[in-house]
């Protein structure tokens, strides 16, 4: 029943595709190739490889591999650093008073602005790209973790104190789990930001990846290829978000349950 | 076992405790009753070392309470904020036992035994939010029991459950106290309850609170929700505590009539 209603809501997708197809065919503009042409190019470029490699072509591996590696390594590094720092700051009101103005300033800086700076400071390629991703993605993780660690229920902390929990138990069994819903919200926001910043980093400071391919195809007037990159990025963003939600639903099952009953 | 001498506490200029002195002997179940806002919770939090009182002395087993004592447990009124919702009931009960030097299996066994004692033998793998309020409070009690504290503090432990559950939990506490020789200080605003569960009832005055009376109940340990409440001694004590809580003799007539009506 749920599946049927979910599918029922999807009817707009094929309708939109058909409209897109009809309008672009009628317009005959080179900048706006019809979706069928885009899909054909995507298939040719990326998904016509051997079955043993899940149909992925050499180009697909060359484009997606470095991009996904950048995206995930940037996101994971930031997650570890951001959560650790956020817990430390959130648990110490004094530290949080000191660093709060800096954090507010830092997050107000649009991350792409720093690409030229990172390019001057670091090597073109991976270091500058990772720096761009990390800098842009760290804010939602950091702020959400601080908030989560700061708003641990006082009575949960008192319970930990009464029963003599060690510092490690307090951290791993009380503070981290109660901050986890907010941390996950930050991580999810960060994941979609990481995708955007990955593309930006590859456009400005890259020699490979989907972002670089996007720039290259645009400069070579290969509009169906360029649109293929755009569609691929959209689909990638959708898949990443869905996968993340799936994990979140498992890890935070207790949170949903607790919220429904109270 | 627990000795409180001249305990004073103020929040800013507002004096809550005005010199409370009381003592609890080993194995006793003492209920502390008083009008709402009279500082009962402040008293309990001072004993638990959660706040540092402005003045006076608290000793537990002869040693002054400065930080949270090692062998003290609390059952809070608000079970939903005391149990950890990200852990099963058994893990909630087992977690505090880590510091007792028990290994995983021993902790698990002790937790299951404690859950069994509170009548939740089959609920170990349930999460708190899958349980009713009464069941959650039973888990809190099991957690305290498994911890084997020398003193168990209960802060309005039955304040958030319905009447039937409340009676069940009162009997559970009496049972536990009798079987484990555990020392309990129970705070309540409910006059009837203070007499029903207590070996002794300590009545506090309005804030700044002092001890208005310290009554020995003397109804024995075997109590029954209906029969005990019908005893003349129970009715007399309840009326006396009621008058004291309302501040001396002002409530005398109303309390007597209400007693008559109940009879």
Describe the model.
The complex is a heterodimer of chains A (262) and B (263). In chain A, helix 4 runs parallel beside helix 7 and helix 10 packs antiparallel against helix 11. Chain A has twelve helices and no strands. Chain A has 262 residues and is mostly helical. By secondary structure, chain B is α/β, with parallel strands linked by helices. Chain B folds into two domains: 143 residues, 3-Layer(aba) Sandwich (Rossmann fold), CATH 3.40.50; 71 residues, no CATH class. Chain B is globular, with a radius of gyration of 19 Å. Chain B: Pfam families: ABC_tran. Chain B: This is ABC transporter ATP-binding protein. Chain B: Keywords: ATP-binding, Nucleotide-binding, Transport. Chain B: One of its GO terms (molecular function) is ATP binding.
CATH fold description of chain A: MetI-like fold
Of all chain pairs, the largest interface belongs to: A-B, 24 and 26 residues
Number of strands of chain B: 10
**What overall form of chain B do the CA principal axes indicate?**
globular
Key structural traits:
heterodimer; A: 262 residues; mainly alpha; MetI-like fold; 12 helices; 81% helix; globular; B: 263 residues; alpha/beta; Rossmann fold; 2 domains; six-stranded mixed β-sheet; four-stranded antiparallel β-sheet; 9 helices; 10 strands
Describe this structure in a few short sentences.
The complex is a heterodimer of chains A (262) and B (263). Chain A has 262 residues and is mostly helical.
Secondary-structure map:
The complex is a heterodimer of chains A (262) and B (263).
Chain A: H1 2-8, H2 12-27, H3 35-46, H4 58-91, H5 93-108, H6 115-121, H7 126-150, H8 154-162, H9 167-205, H10 210-219, H11 223-251, H12 253-261
Helix pairs in contact in A: 3-11, 4-5, 4-7, 4-9, 4-10, 5-7, 6-7, 7-9, 9-10, 9-11, 10-11
Chain B: E1 2-11, E2 14-24, E3 29-33, H1 40-47, E4 55-60, E5 63-64, E6 72-75, H2 89-94, H3 104-117, H4 133-146, E7 151-155, H5 163-180, E8 183-188, H6 191-197, E9 200-204, E10 211-216, H7 227-230, H8 232-245, H9 252-262
Parallel strand pairs in B: 3-8, 3-9, 6-7, 7-8
Antiparallel strand pairs in B: 1-2, 1-4, 4-5, 9-10
Helix pairs in contact in B: 3-4, 4-5, 6-8, 8-9
């Amino acid at each position: 029943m749920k599946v049927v209603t979910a599918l029922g809501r999807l009817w707009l997708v094929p309708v939109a595709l058909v409209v897109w197809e009809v309008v672009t065919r009628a317009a005959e503009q080179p900048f706006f190739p019809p979706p069928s042409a885009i899909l054909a190019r995507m298939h040719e470029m990326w998904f016509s490889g051997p079955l043993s490699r899940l149909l992925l072509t050499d180009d697909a591996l060359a484009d997606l591999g470095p991009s996904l590696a950048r995206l995930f390594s940037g996101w994971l590094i930031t997650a570890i650093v951001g959560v650790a720092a956020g817990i430390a700051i959130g648990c110490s009101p004094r530290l949080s008073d000191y660093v709060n103005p800096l954090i507010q300033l830092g997050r107000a800086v649009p991350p792409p602005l720093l690409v030229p700076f990172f390019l001057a400071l670091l090597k073109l390629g991976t270091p500058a790209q990772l720096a761009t991703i990390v800098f842009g993605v760290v804010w939602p993780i950091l702020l959400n973790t601080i908030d989560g660690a700061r708003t641990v229920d006082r009575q949960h902390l008192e319970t930990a104190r009464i029963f003599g929990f060690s510092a490690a138990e307090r951290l791993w069994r009380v503070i981290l789990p109660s901050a986890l819903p907010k941390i996950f919200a930050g991580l999810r926001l960060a994941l979609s930001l990481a995708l955007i910043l990955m593309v930006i980093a590859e456009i400005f400071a890259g020699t490979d990846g989907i972002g670089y391919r996007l720039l290259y195809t645009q400069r070579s007037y290969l509009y169906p290829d360029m649109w293929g990159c755009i569609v691929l990025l959209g689909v990638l963003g959708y898949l990443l978000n869905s996968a993340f939600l799936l994990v979140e639903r498992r890890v935070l099952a207790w949170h949903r349950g607790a919220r429904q009953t109270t | 076992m627990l000795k409180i001498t001249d305990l004073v506490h103020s929040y800013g200029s507002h004096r809550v405790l005005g010199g409370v002195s009381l003592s609890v002997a080993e194995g006793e179940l003492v209920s502390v009753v008083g009008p709402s806002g009279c500082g009962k919770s402040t008293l309990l939090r001072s004993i638990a070392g959660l706040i540092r009182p402005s003045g006076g002395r608290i000793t537990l087993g002869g040693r002054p309470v400065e930080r949270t004592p090692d062998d003290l447990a609390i059952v809070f009124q608000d079970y939903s904020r005391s149990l950890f919702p990200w852990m099963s009931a058994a893990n909630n009960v087992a977690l505090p036992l880590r510091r007792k030097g028990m290994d995983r299996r021993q902790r698990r066994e002790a937790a299951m035994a404690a859950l069994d004692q509170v009548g939740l033998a089959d609920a170990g793998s349930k999460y708190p939010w899958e349980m009713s309020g009464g069941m959650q409070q039973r888990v809190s009690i099991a957690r305290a029991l498994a911890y084997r504290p020398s003193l168990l503090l209960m802060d309005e432990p039955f304040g958030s459950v319905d009447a039937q559950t409340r009676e069940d939990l009162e009997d559970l506490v009496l049972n536990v106290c009798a079987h484990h020789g555990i020392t309990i200080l129970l705070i309540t605003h409910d006059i009837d309850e203070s007499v029903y569960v207590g070996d002794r009832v300590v009545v506090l005055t309005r804030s700044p609170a002092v001890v208005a009376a310290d009554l020995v109940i003397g109804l024995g340990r075997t109590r029954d929700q209906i029969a005990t409440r019908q005893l003349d001694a129970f009715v007399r004590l309840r009326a006396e505590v009621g008058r004291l809580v309302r501040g001396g003799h002002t409530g005398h007539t109303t309390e007597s009539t209400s007693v008559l009506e109940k009879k």
